Amino acid sequence: MSEQGNLLAIEGLAVRYGAIEAVRNASLEVREGEIVTLLGANGAGKSSILNAVMGLVPVAEGRVVFEGQDVAGQPPERIVRRGMTLCPEGRHVFSNLTIAENLKIGAASRRDKSEAAATQADMLALFPILDERRDQLAGTLSGGEQQMLAIARAMMSQPKIVLLDEPSLGLAPQIVDTIFELIVRLRDRGATILLVEQNVDLALEIADRGYVLATGDIVLSGPAADLRGSGDVERAYMGSH
Ligand SMILES: Nc1ncnc2c1ncn2[C@@H]1O[C@H](COP(=O)(O)OP(=O)(O)OP(=O)(O)O)[C@@H](O)[C@H]1O
Ligand SMILES: [Mg+2]
Q: Quick check: CB of 6 below 6 Å from ligand 1?
């Protein structure tokens, strides 16, 4: 099933919380260098998929094939060391630590500290607002700045793929545009990105391919250009209620 060239292939994934079946038989692929977006309404199961991929919640059924190896059930630290990172929903920066300290924590899995310092310099160059405020406590940053920090922190482990869980959540449209421009810049620099979003139009604008999840099932997938403005995504959303 897992085609060659896939960096990540989720195959027949099920996630359950007791009797609640949050995700059923979900399959999706991400190839190197792509932005793939996973769309779906509140409660569709998007975060459950990302959390199961990262080993943060159990995989009830299915495989999570990363670079050709099934990593389902491995602990999160090991998955991070293999090259996957999650930028979680709701950002979760360390409020009482500075920007620079938050970034250092993002590099905790790396042995070579001088390389980690180089990545930090790189991230601060990419996110100038974080550079200006590097000694400021993360808790005092605006929501948009915290989101930028959360993304930069995720990139500090130099992941082969980064999973972004609703980076636009709760942010003003102008800030969302800035965040999405940064995501495109990351991809242009070689990053591979699985982007969970509820902002359908923007996500399909920057993504190469998209999947729509409705109450635990993948109900639609295709090239973003085909999904954009076709009405299919809206119908898939409505079909879920
Ligand atoms: N820890 C948990 N225990 C029990 N049920 C859970 C748990 N986490 C999620 N669920 C349920 O699983 C379903 C999918 O939730 P999930 O958070 O994956 O959806 P989502 O698509 O990320 O939604 P949102 O867009 O609101 O973040 C929901 O019905 C939710 O209530
Ligand atoms: Mg979620």
A: no
Residues 6+ apart with CB under 8 A from 111: none
Check: pTM over 0.85? Answer yes or no.
Answer: yes
Report all structural domains of the chain as residue ranges with CATH numbers, in order of start. 6-238 (3.40.50.300)
SS3 label, residue 236: helix
- The DSSP output letter for 111 is S
For ligand 1, whether the C-beta of 22 sits within 6 Å is: yes
Per-residue pLDDT reduced to its tens digit, 200-220:
999 999 999 999 999 999 999
Q: Over the stretch 39-51, which tens digit does the pLDDT of each residue have?
A: 999 999 999 999 9
Establish whether residue 43 lines the binding site of ligand 1, counting it when its CB lies within 6 angstroms of any ligand atom. yes
Which residues, in sequence order, are bridge partners of residue 9? 29, 65
